[in-house]
Amino acid sequence: MPLGQSHNSHADSSRPPRRGVVGVIMEQGKLLVIRRSRLVRAPLKYCFPGGSIEPGETEQQAVLRELDEELALDVTVGKKLWHCTTSWGVDLAWWQVFRDPSQEPQIAPSEVDSYYWMTAAEMQVLRDLLPSNYEFLKLLAQQAITIDEAP
Ligand SMILES: Nc1nc2c([nH]c(=O)n2[C@@H]2O[C@H](COP(=O)(O)OP(=O)(O)OP(=O)(O)O)[C@@H](O)[C@H]2O)c(=O)[nH]1
């Protein structure tokens, strides 16, 4: 969602979204990681694409919308990988996502500073990762979470 258009504006850190989604894309052993824009909550932190669920949306619809808004990617939503509640009280659903590899991400600069393809090991040692992502990566390393190969 563009900045400043809703009560959920990123600038309003006193009211974080209560429910969110995360989209996990893995291709050839690498994860699509974004660096958040300096204009949003948690500026310049690394994480996966995603965001809050808007009223009336399903989790899958929210994943599709966020991937489109942040990276202009038209994706397919796969299986639900994980579910957590962040330490700041957001109920977060993590979904596997597939893209057509010929489609290059186009960042929306108001939301995303840059994107990277990283192995889970590379991501895990980032200092500026959102905290819940360390837990996700730990479970991935333990194979408590498994990501399917792209079809
Ligand atoms: N996008 C994203 N959010 C995550 C991840 N891990 C994680 O804990 N979150 C949390 O999920 C919540 C929603 O993400 P967000 O900050 O991108 O969403 P937002 O509502 O500000 O953005 P929006 O306006 O695009 O919907 C935040 O509390 C964020 O900290 C992740 O890997 N990606």
UniProtKB/TrEMBL annotation:
Catalysed reaction equations from the record: 8-oxo-dGTP + H2O = 8-oxo-dGMP + diphosphate + H(+); 8-oxo-GTP + H2O = 8-oxo-GMP + diphosphate + H(+)
Keywords: DNA damage, DNA repair, DNA replication, Hydrolase, Magnesium, Metal-binding, Mutator protein
EC top class named in words: hydrolase
Listed Pfam families: NUDIX
Top-level taxonomic group: Bacteria
EC number: 3.6.1.55
MF-aspect GO terms: 8-oxo-7,8-dihydrodeoxyguanosine triphosphate pyrophosphatase activity; 8-oxo-7,8-dihydroguanosine triphosphate pyrophosphatase activity; 8-oxo-dGDP phosphatase activity; 8-oxo-GDP phosphatase activity; metal ion binding
Keyword Transport: no
UniProt-listed Gene3D superfamilies: Nucleoside Triphosphate Pyrophosphohydrolase (3.90.79.10)
Coiled-coil residue spans: none
Cofactor(s) this protein requires: Mg(2+)
InterPro entries attached to this UniProt entry: MutT-like, Nudix_hydrolase, NUDIX_hydrolase-like_dom_sf, NUDIX_hydrolase_dom
Residue ranges constituting the Nudix hydrolase domain according to the UniProt record: 16-144
An individual GO BP term: DNA replication
Protein family membership: Belongs to the Nudix hydrolase family.
Protein's recorded name: 8-oxo-dGTP diphosphatase
